[in-house]
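Pilot study result, target chain (428 residues):
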Amino acid sequence: MATIRLSRRMFLRTAAAGAAVGGAPRALRARPTTFKVGVIHPVTGPLAEPGQACRLGAQLATDAINAAGGIKSLGGMKLELLLGDTQTKPDLGRLEAERVVNQGARMLMGSFDSGSTAAMVSVAQQKRVPFLVDIAAADPITANVAKAVKEGTQKVQYVYRNFPTGSSFGRLAVRYFDEIFAAAGVAPKRVVLMYTNDLFGQNQSKGFLAAHKAASPSWRIVEVIPWPEPPSNLSTEVSRAKAAKPDVIAPITRPASAQLLLPELRKQRVEVMGIVGPGSPGLYEAGQLAALREDLEYVMDNLPSWPNFRKSRTPQVAEEYRKRSGGKTFDTNAVASYDGIRIIADVLERTGREALLDTDGPEAIVEAMKKTTFKDVLAVAAGPVVFDELGDNPNASTAMIQILGRKPVVVWPKDAAVQKFVFPRPKA
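Predicted structure:
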């Protein structure tokens, strides 16, 4: 009996060796039928609407890739999404990341809010699972890992981001403010910055303030007003803003806080040239447009990764998204996750089957990630997707959108704009 078992082992080894590159011996292993990606976003809770947009964007891209034949270099292997929900709770983000990895996820993507994303980073690093951040702006998410690798406390950086950092958000916001004011032929002098006092809001406001100081534009930030998130009432904060006599209110919001802030600004009759956000959710989503109606009209927001409708493929994808979402706009959240999945597919095409089957498969994915030069993104961008020494994409960019006719449209920069902006906003 022992002789028979030995003979079968020898047969299997021979078969495995014949399948290996160059005929080199290789341990026999089960070949996966799909490549599993853990896609984790806040699809319930306070950020459910943008989180659901992310999930649908990721699914649209996955369906398109699979329908086109899957990952060609992996023999047509299909992508399979393992879905998770952070509920905007960092601890749950970590637990969801652990869950999908235990279920076989070999890469991660997510997760919208910076707190949950930062919690997922620890799982990616500990479990050796490459992680593409599709949305989350806090600079330390990648910078801390890069620092740990440089200092030798971590061997490999598994975390990369195709999304503007908080500091780059700030630089672009200040630049767009200047350019729009100049193009409008007006010269606002007094800007009040108001922000949600969570990790995201702190990082965004810090980046905006630092960029303003570095650029030293003609307009001043005369008051900085934080609020706890979620707030129960913003009347005190709006009174402070009104007392500062602003020309422009620059809010960094969450959806819940925007639904209190904008009506309160109207209620207290805060007269300004315009409301121009440095960059945040809450000022463009379909649910917000329905809830806030005229309070959102003419509001501008500096957003990352907004779809570039000057690209020929974007309207087609946007129409498919509209059909599958029940009529919603293909927005910054949907396109960020759509592009994220396509970046992952590009990385896998360049990784190759044999590298993935090796015990160092995660590191092979990382090496392919580092060499990314992906040009076919649908979002407004300054160039192809590349990753720098921090793991960030320096070509990730933003676009200024404005609510016009109760629809969000790109109004700046000029090469991506589909409609002319309105500033100052008309008086009621």
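One observation from the pilot: The mean pLDDT is 91. A full batch analysis is planned for the follow-on phase.
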